[in-house]
Amino acid sequence: MKKGGAASVAAWFLVAMVVVLVAEVHETAAANCVPTELSPCLAAITGGSPPSPQCCSKLREQQPCFCGYSKNPALKPYVESPNAKKVAATCGVAFPRC
């Protein structure tokens, strides 16, 4: 992937996460589901690099939110991507069946 393409994907991912955050404010307060909390996992999910310890920690915190994220059209491609599942497996986080 070209350098500009990776930056574009990263920017799109962050924009999508912000949109979801704004759209789901009422759910966020109740379930602590904040998609932007997963930003430490961005490089691992979009580029296939190994997840950092901070990424794994955030995945564990956000695990109850995965089904909700996968139902959101803006986040679904990231949550259900092969790299996301690899990152979750590497971190020892079970990927739920939704």
From TrEMBL:
Record protein name field: Bifunctional inhibitor/plant lipid transfer protein/seed storage helical domain-containing protein
Organism (species): Buddleja alternifolia
Entry annotated with the keyword Transport: yes
Domain called Bifunctional inhibitor/plant lipid transfer protein/seed storage helical: residue spans: 33-98
Stretch forming the signal peptide: 1-30
InterPro entries in UniProt: Bifun_inhib/LTP/seed_sf, Bifunc_inhib/LTP/seed_store, nsLTP2
GO biological process, one term: lipid transport
Any one GO MF annotation of this record: lipid binding
CDD domains assigned: nsLTP2
Source domain of life: Eukaryota
Keywords, comma-separated and alphabetical: Lipid-binding, Signal, Transport
